[in-house]
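Continuing the series of single-chain predictions for the mutant panel. This is the parent chain; the variants come on the following pages.
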Amino acid sequence: MYFLRESLRNFFRHRRANAVAVVVIAMGMLLVGGIGLSYVNFRNLEASWGGQVHIVIYLRDDVSPQGLEALRHALSQGPETASLEFTSKEQALHQFKARLGEGADILEGLQTNPLPASFTLKVRDEHRSPELLRAMVGRYRTLPEIEGIDYGERWVERFHLLVWVLRIGVLGVGGVISMAVMLIIANTVRLALYARAEEIEIMRLVGATAWFIKLPFFLEGVLQGLLGTGVALGLLYGLFSLVLTWLRPMAELFVDLSFLQFLPPQALAALILGGTLLGGLGSMVSLRRTDA
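Parent structure:
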């Protein structure tokens, strides 16, 4: 209890330096939280759009009924298949005319139906990576009943690359900012140590141990990290709410933004714990480099 009381007393005694440290920590953690928030929502977007990832398998016109049923069975039993839907040549032409709308009149002169029958295969979540999709499509292309396969290969690869780059960015930027936050806290605590050099010397003379002297400063750094992270999360939530309010009218007209969410409880707990630990570690770095 003494150490907590002493750290609070020091914190308010040197409130200007500590306020600067808290603000800088908040800015750093705000950037880390913002990148983390972007990553969480990109993952949500990936899951939302991933549910729409499907493979269209076009069939040869000369496929026999037995071959069609054998292919249907083989596709439906595949470990990557979430659902399978068959579209006949007649259904494909009807759907194409529906898409054309009034322009469907241009198809009236057709003597034969040029569109192939097809299977639309929806892929399970765990098989949606570009590598697994390529391997799966390569396997299916060897089947004699199949004319061609389309699954938006370039779009899938670019989107997965974007998610990977963002994941690396979260780790890289988070690491750099964490080091900067530790150095800021270390310098703040070091200044406090120098300002109280005479008081610390008196404590030494009366027999106080090194950790008895240093522990309040360590707790002071922890408090800086906790307050800075709390301010950062408050600002981040406010900015997120403002952006969501601004985007909501757009969502009603153009795109569904229901996948957007604030940081989940696990991420919030990790940021709070991480910021608090950074404060403590920053203090320890400073205390190791002083003679206190």
